[in-house]
Write the structure tokens for this entry.
Amino acid sequence: MKPKEPLVKERQKPQHPVLKHFREDSPGTPHLWCPGCGVGQVWHFTTRAIEELGLDEDKVLWVGGSGCTGRMCTYWHKDFFHTLHGRALSFATGVKLARPELTVLVHSGDGECVAIGGNHLIHAARRNVDITLIAINNFNYGMTGGQFSPTTPRNVNTATTPYGNREAPFDLSTLMREAGATYIARWTTFHARQVINAIKKGIQNKGFSFIEILAQCPTQYGRRNKLGNAVEMMEWLKAHSIPKEKADRMSPEELQGKFIVGELFSTTRPEFSEYMRSVAAEAAS
Amino acid sequence: MQGNEACVEGALAAGCMLFAGYPITPATEIAEFMARRLPQVGGIYVQGEDELASLGMVLGASAAGWKAMTATSGNGICLMQEEIGYAAMTEIPCVIVDAQRAGPGTGIATKSMQGDVYQVRYGSNADYSIIALAPSSPQEMFDLTLEAFNLSEKYRTPAFVLSDEIVSHMREPVVIPPPERIQLVERKKPSVPPDQFVPYRAETPDGVPPMPSFGDGYALPVSSFARTETGRPITDFQNQDRLVRRLWNKIEKHADSIARVEIEGLADAQVAILSYGSVARAAREAARRMRSQGKAVASIRLITLWPFPDRRIRELAKGLRALFVPEMNMGKMVREVERVAGKYAEIFSLPKPGVDIHTPAEIQQEIERWWR
């Protein structure tokens, strides 16, 4: 039997490509997400999008609140704003008004951005503030142990719906379209390339961009609903995804239990920090 | 000029660039004047969808380098409490005006009370410190709003202007000094390049670390997790102890230089009336009347409520036999007075739970009853 290689040598191996964006003094080893969690993938996709756009990273601010997704910003190696549960969009809006030249990215989970932060969500979309909101929808509150959220489908099991969920879920992308977001896309963690492209387009859109990423939470949601391990859950997400072009030709009955994915909506509308500044120009004249 | 309008002019003189607020009586005029005045100086007025959004935007703008402010009443402060703790913990400067109204609960929107003096000091969870100033006149709505910005920047802390319905809606002449006579304080910026910068290390004995803005290239970590000086989250006692003590001490240990007290008629006085805000107007008048009748009664007015001027009030009490504390609440700041001065003088609370302010005659009567 060959002796084990020393650990030091192990560390000299080529590093994972996202590690160069990782904050050196991050807590944990090396992060707090469970094995197989979709949040880490989205962390990767976000840094890829920033790289591919060639952005000056000193001008890219990551904002988050609480929960598994809310923690994403704390691992970003440049400026981060880890705010309060549900309030990430409010804090981000304030930053954008004062420093419109910054790229402001908000990562928010389904519990945070639609439940406790739902009011700020619809108003950020209505104002069309130039923020890219990357909403990770894993259908439950993962950090606190898998309780149901406003996006949990009917009849499934969570820590607080032991007899099955009776409430109707929100369709986030439809909600965002009604509220006024100017770029809306929905993908799953299976669609790596598509997610990276959507984040790039979201950043380039001068206005409120909403990118919903359906993600696996194998530890909580998957376990309680017998959806298997992370890979099986991703395959499940893919199997239930219908591209928008195809979905447009299907009946509501056929679309039951399916996720419509793709670039769902895009338009142009005056942006918040710009039109708020135009008030000053008018008042001065 | 109305008190609330003077408050807006004070904020503009201080360099406020963003106001975010939600309409609430009796603070609404501040939002209305801000909506007109801020754009004239290149600033932005935002109407939040609620108080949480409003203070959130204020903190975002401040972290990005702007001076920013919100205004509300006690009910709005209730909603802002989590963010007040966040601001204290992350040391983001901000100014919060609380035009107090009668409560508890929805209370009486159009009537006055001094019910929020504890809520602004102790409302958010756990231990932190803030600064609160209590104006007594429209002139002070200008002066103290300006001072609140300066203190907030200097100590990297939320600073409150604790007005009430009476002072906010009162109209009196206000003198606005020319810009060259106004002293402005700006937050300390890092003196070192980004690679040597330790985000939460105070370089000076005052315990206040320098603060870059987002986008300045300092890779600034902002989170209200308990943290090391580098911003890394912690769970151990030593780091927690160091952090909480610094946040507490940077204000409490400077109480002597932060807190201002106005004293009138102290010579030979054995009795004093200690008050603040609108009630101080009646208290001062009562003391003047009694002095004109040959009774040596002093008036002590707290301009700063928090940090409480412990040493100053203790020293004053040593020369007095009795201190009367009229407040438009059931007796709040009187507990602080008892704490620091109870050993040296008799302390009497004169509570009145809002709506009607004390009249000078009422205060006078209480003192005379004791005198007999």
Notes: The beta strands of chain A are 60-64, 80-82, 103-109, 132-137, 140-141, 147-148, 183-188, 209-214, 241-243, 259-266. The two ends of chain A are 83 Å apart (CA to CA). Chain A touches chain B through 40 residues (CB under 8 Å).
